[in-house]
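Run log // design_07
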């Protein structure tokens, strides 16, 4: 009887190992790709089925701000040059950010103004405060999952990240003369 239980346990262990192995292989197929890093930031994106998952790890932001009410906030703005042409196009290009009610999507009117927020069900984001694999000092990080088709009609996405830290101010990645003058170009 004991032998049968031992065999059964071994079988379970084997299945667990297979499952873990499968999970790892699945992750390896679409590893997170880093698109920017410096002493205070690590930005990555990852293909997850029909979505792109962005992770903005803000190591330099060690104060927990609120969401929503300026200026005591920690937020990001992810600008997307949807038609990949290096300029802001009214009602075509987009911006995503995290507010009190969830992840807000707006269309750009020009570089400085936008439509009102909409909250698509297919866009999901979170803000975390704590340690991550990049730093054991508690800090702010953001994650947002966006359908690939919203980001671009081609095989690349051109994005710009703006961050606001309650303890400091805005910072821009990359910083250009105008909004989409310089962008991060991501392969989808
Ligand atoms: Ca902060
Ligand atoms: Ca554009």
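design_07 sequence
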């Amino acid at each position: 009887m004991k032998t049968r239980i031992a065999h059964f346990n071994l079988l379970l262990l084997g299945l667990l190992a297979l499952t873990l192995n499968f999970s790892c292989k699945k992750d390896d197929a679409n590893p997170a790709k880093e698109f920017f890093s410096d002493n205070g930031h690590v930005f990555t994106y990852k293909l997850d089925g029909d979505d792109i998952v962005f992770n903005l790890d803000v190591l330099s932001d060690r104060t927990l701000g609120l969401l929503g009410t300026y200026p005591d906030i920690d937020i990001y703005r992810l600008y997307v040059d949807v038609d990949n042409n290096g300029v802001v196009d009214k009602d075509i290009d987009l911006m995503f950010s995290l507010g009190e009610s969830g992840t807000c999507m707006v269309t750009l009117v020009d570089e400085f103004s936008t439509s009102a927020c909409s909250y698509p069900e297919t866009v999901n984001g979170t803000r975390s405060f704590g340690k991550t694999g990049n730093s054991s000092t508690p800090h702010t990080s953001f994650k947002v999952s966006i359908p690939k088709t919203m980001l671009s009609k081609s095989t690349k996405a051109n994005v710009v990240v703006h961050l606001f830290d309650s303890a400091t101010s805005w910072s821009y990645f990359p910083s250009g003369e105008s909004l989409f003058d310089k962008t991060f170009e991501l392969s989808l």
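The domain at 32-187 is CATH 2.60.40.1190 (Immunoglobulin-like).
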